[in-house]
Structure formats: structure tokens, C-alpha cells
Amino acid sequence: AQSVSQHNHHVILSEAASLELGCNYSYGGTVNLFWYVQYPGQHLQLLLKYFSGDPLVKGIKGFEAEFIKSKFSFNLRKPSVQWSDTAEYFCAVNARGATNKLIFGTGTLLAVQP
Amino acid sequence: SQTIHQWPATLVQPVGSPLSLECTVEGTSNPNLYWYRQAAGRGLQLLFYSVGIGQISSEVPQNLSASRPQDRQFILSSKKLLLSDSGFYLCAWSSKGNQPQHFGDGTRLSIL
User: Fold this and answer.
1) In chain B, which residues touch A (CB < 8 A)?
2) Distance, in angstroms, between A107 CA and closest chain B CA?
3) What is the rounded CA–CA span in Å between residue B40 and residue B36?
4) How many CB atoms are located within 10 Å of the residue B18 CB?
5) Angstrom distance (rounded) from CA A70 to CA A85
């Protein structure tokens, strides 16, 4: 069965610090990978996605993620975080197919201190 | 542009009462539709998905059911709520194929 692991459940950083959130998945076939973000009081929204091609993908608000197939990983990075990045971040995977079912990680709550 | 609406935003219900949460999508046709439950520290769990009218797939055995009476309408129901049904329920839609899902604002359901 597919699963997604996010190892950091709660991260606290100061503004301007660099961020890396880990995401590992287990699935033997071809996958699509996503990072979603949920800002306080807002709905879940797509941050970035990887379908194919360049394994380093750029998302909104200066975020990027790198797909490393050999490590089954899709870590999220940002060189310099801002207070407005305080949110919960979810990694998600789906196996390529018609139903587009997403398997989510448990989420990482990021708090950025001004 | 496409929009997704979910209501109500919050709901408090007694144990044993029925439930009906509604989700509608505008600006697209023949979407895939999904119901998730989000629990603190446990991420989002897919409950149901639908690829067309009247087509419902259940992911986990539970006290809930889903229906899709119209192309862009997805309803989450229960005949008798349990305490364990408390949680945050999210509806989502996507285009066909492996496209990103777009989420509604969610319904906070509290069972007393």
C-alpha cells in the first residue's frame, strides 16, 4: 500500500532561516508528487507539483522541492522563510491512473518567529 | 474560473442524529470529486471519491456514505452520527487525469 511520511511534525524557525521539510513515500510505480499548504484560517492550496521532467520544481512564494527517485523523497525547501510562511504543510502522492487518489502525509506545522 | 463551495462551515450535532454535508463545484464539468477527513496529527484521509454521477468509491469502512446526484454536487451523509465522526471534513475536485486537487474551506463537525 502507498504511504507518505513527513518526519518533521512541528518546526519552529526564525525569519530568514532556511527551511527543509522532509517527505518520503513508499510506492513501487510511477508517481506524481505534491506539496499543499494550509495557512491559518484558509483552505488547503497547492504549493507545487511534480509530474515528470526536471526533478527540481519551483512553486509559489519562493518554495521549491526536489524529487530524488532513488530515495523516494520529495523534500520541500525555501532559502529564507518569512513570518507569513507560518502554516501547515502537507506532502501528497498519487499513483498515475484514472482515479487520481491522493495519499497525504501527516503534515508539518511550521511556525516562523519574527 | 472554477470554484468549490462547502457548507456548512461548522456544525454541532448530537450523537445519533443524521448528517448531510454538501459540496458543489462551479466552472467545470465532469470533475472527479473527493471527501477527506482531516484529523490533527494524522493528515488527510480519503473517505470517498467519485469519477461521475452515481459513481462512488469508498476508501475506508465507516459510518458515513456519499452520493453524487448531479455532476457537480457531492454529498456526505450519515443516518446516525457517532462521537468518532467528529472532525474536519474537506471536499475537493480535480479534472480528469492526474491533475492537482482543489479544496473547499471545510466543515468542522462536532458531535456531542
Assistant:
1) 32, 34, 36, 41-46, 49, 51, 57, 59, 90, 92, 94, 96-106
2) 6
3) 13
4) 10
5) 29
What is the model's pLDDT at position A64?
Answer: 97
Between A and B, how many residue pairs show a Cβ–Cβ distance under 8 A?
62
Distances from the Cα of A82 to the Cα of A4, A41, A85, A98, B17, angstroms: 26, 18, 5, 38, 45
Q: How far apart are CA A86 and CA A50, in angstroms?
A: 23
Residues of B in contact with A104 (CB under 8 A): 36, 43-45
Helix (H) and strand (E) counts in chain B:
0, 11
Lowest mean pLDDT among A27-36, A40-49, A97-106, B56-65: A97-106
Q: Is the pLDDT of residue A27 over 90?
A: no
d(CA A21, CA A90): 10
Amino acid at A55: P
The answer to whether B4 and B102 have CB atoms below 8 angstroms apart is yes
In this complex, do A104 and B44 lie within 8 Å of one another by their Cβ atoms?
A: yes
CB A102 within 8 A of CB A27: no
Model confidence band, residue B14 (pLDDT cutoffs 50, 70, 90):
very high
Rounded to whole angstroms, the Cα distance separating A46 from A55 reads 17
